[in-house]
Design a protein that fits this description.
About 50% of the residues lie in helices and about 10% in strands. It is α/β, with parallel strands linked by helices. The protein is globular, with a radius of gyration of 20 Å.
């Protein structure tokens, strides 16, 4: 018996933030970062809370790739004045941190008579899909730990395109490729289903249809809304179907060398597609069939499975080139000596990563090392 989980209520489109004004709550705990406060996006939330007579406290020290100490700090602040609603405002790191704070505080204080607060996630990048997933990525030293628990699913996701129109072009590229990677990996996952397939296919189409427009003109709110929706849709797909070794490799690469997550995925994606499809071999497995189907959906040449896989890889690389993304890991400024010195460590982390078991093709240490070297 299988299941497909649909939980968060999704508020999307223009003025989606006005949902906050409709809430019935006494005290809100806001998890965000300094940038959201500095650029006034946090004010968009606090103003609506104040107008509704809801008091609030703020934890705004979340940094990219939050570590365990950041979670402990957030727990202490949340515990001081326990809220009836938690609002995460920011990118994937902020939303992941809020999930871990809620989860950890709840499970360390089970004996306290409390009600689990409503959890509202408001993404300010179009990439992670964290607003609709049960995943949280937390850093422990140089390793990224992937926590997975339905308890961490938000209750409401608010997708307002106004919040992403000022995202810089380079971050738009990184996060947009993260969306594509989520959709591709969910589509070929060992636990994919008809339900996740439908979402993954749509997310892929939206990315190829609108990401370049977002990159070239961030003020294009139609394109921004489409990519914001694509991020959420891909998140729904992979929280049910899980991911694969592009993410496993990217988690380790990002943890060791501090490469933004979406960029790390982009550096590895084409090589993993070729590996999963067995492009150097027969190229006739289930993953190859699925990649070729995506190519057909994008109106790319796909008269055979091999041609479809190759077309998809070309399309991925063209997308990267159009957004001036680095072609290989070395182009990010990592020298070969340092890369080789940490290669074994990264391979070990990728093997242990929770995304590896659902990759469509089994993988060994040697094969992961080859994929890293190809991507370098």
């Amino acid at each position: 018996m299988n299941q497909f989980l649909i939980k968060p209520k999704v508020q999307f489109g223009a003025n989606a933030l006005d949902f906050i004004s409709q809430m019935h709550a006494h005290h809100a705990f806001i998890v965000t970062d300094k940038a959201m406060v500095k650029f006034g996006l946090a004010d968009e939330v606090t103003r609506r809370l104040t107008q509704s007579g809801i008091t609030f406290s703020i934890y705004d020290d979340v940094m990219p790739d939050p570590d365990i100490s950041a979670i402990v700090k957030g727990m202490k602040i949340m515990d001081m004045q326990y809220p009836d609603v938690v609002i995460a405002l920011g990118g994937g790191s902020v939303i992941d941190a809020a999930k871990a704070v809620i989860y950890s505080l709840w499970h360390t204080k089970k004996d306290v008579n409390r009600v689990k607060p409503q959890f509202i996630a408001i993404p300010t990048t179009s990439g992670t899909g964290s607003e609709v997933t049960s995943f949280s990525v937390i850093k422990s030293q140089s390793e990224k730990l992937v926590l997975v628990d339905e308890f961490m699913l938000p209750d409401v996701a608010i997708l307002d395109p106004v919040l992403v129109k000022s995202v810089p072009a380079s971050i738009t590229a990184d996060t947009g490729m993260d969306v594509l990677c989520h959709a591709l990996e969910a589509y070929v996952s060992r636990t994919a289903s008809d339900f996740s397939d439908a979402l993954a296919e749509k997310a892929v189409q939206l990315v190829f249809g609108h990401l370049i427009d977002c990159y070239r003109d961030g003020s294009n709110l139609v394109a921004r809304e489409k990519m914001h929706n694509a991020s959420c849709i891909a998140g729904m797909a992979f929280t049910n179907a899980s991911l694969g070794i592009t993410h496993s490799l990217a988690h380790a690469l990002g943890g060791v060398f501090h490469i933004p997550h979406g960029r790390a995925n982009a550096l590895l994606m084409a090589q993993v597609v070729a590996f999963n499809a067995d492009l150097e071999g027969r190229c006739d497995n289930e993953a190859a069939k699925r990649y070729a189907n995506l190519a057909k959906n994008l109106n790319l040449p796909a008269s055979t499975m091999r041609e479809g896989v190759e077309s998809l890889i070309v399309a991925i690389n063209v997308l990267k080139d159009e957004m001036n993304m680095p072609k290989g890991i070395q182009a990010t400024g990592i020298n070969e000596f340092d890369f080789n010195a940490r290669l074994g460590e990264m391979v070990g982390q990728a093997l242990r990563d929770s995304c590896t078991p659902t990759n469509p093709r089994d993988v060994s240490k040697v094969q992961l090392e080859v994929l890293y070297r190809q991507s370098f």
